[in-house]
Design goal:
The chain is an alpha+beta fold. It folds into three domains: 100 residues, Orthogonal Bundle (Arc Repressor Mutant, subunit A); 89 residues, Roll (SH3 type barrels), CATH 2.30.30; 84 residues, Alpha-Beta Plaits (2-Layer Sandwich), CATH 3.30.70. Helices cover 36% and strands 24% of the residues. Helix 1 packs across helix 3. The model has no long low-confidence stretch (mean pLDDT 84).
Amino acid sequence: MMHKFKFYLWLIDLLSIEPLPLEEIKTRWKFASANDSHLDFSERTFNRYRREAELLMYVEIECDKKNGNVYRIVRPDGFKNNELREWLHSAFRISNLASSVNQRKDILIESAPAGACLLQNILEAIDRKRTLTLTYKSHFKESQTLQFIPAFVRLFKQRWYVIGENREKKKCVTLAFERISNPVMGEEPVVFSETCSILRNPETYFENCYGIIRQHDPILIRFRAFWPEDAYLQDVKIHTSQTEIYKTEQYTDFEIYVRPTYDLKQEFLWHRDKLAVLSPESFRKEMIQTIRATLEGYETVENHAIDE
């Protein structure tokens, strides 16, 4: 069953890129890294697999007889309408890559997110509604022992975070995996306090947030991105609320409705001189102050530099 399942995902992935005739599909499958069971198929078997793949991923695959009997996906967004199916498809691609990456020198990958070894224990505590007694080392405080009720996890910029309730303070907190040690699961089920009832709905907890910081009320921010940065931001938005409001050959103005948090400021600074905040004036002044402080830091280093 597993080899057929891999074929379903592989076929949809292949045909989502380009339509292909059956013989070409068979040739590519023969050399595919996903074909670890050396599965082969006749035209009759292929059509059966094709129908099963359609049911699994909510797509339609038809044979275009007018254009050389090529198979194409005619409802390509079917699986994208369900986040779980899209994650399944994405996971297949990653798994497929992992199976061959060690044998290739032309694939370079980033390091795995730190602390991922804790994921299974944290997810089990979430499923069983248990506390975790853990040690947490913040960069701003001494190590502390927390009675923590995990609610959900989030992967952001190659780092895992768990969001939940500090049971002693009845406060919603976000913990980075790599700073957690010695988690021990409690024996009895627990519930969130009324103060942290928002944790019961993970989908809305980070609403209007840029990343993993949930502070301040959301505001409407307008910014200008200069060429070619504006083109990149049209491909990959800074925030899901991003909309284009004015465009010239030299720059594009955008709007986002978001909380003005520290990680959002860091994102703006990452674009350097290719991005400028236009409004509101209060946030614009905050960015100017941050840039001035950055310049002062460079000047301080310059004044104390040691000639080599």
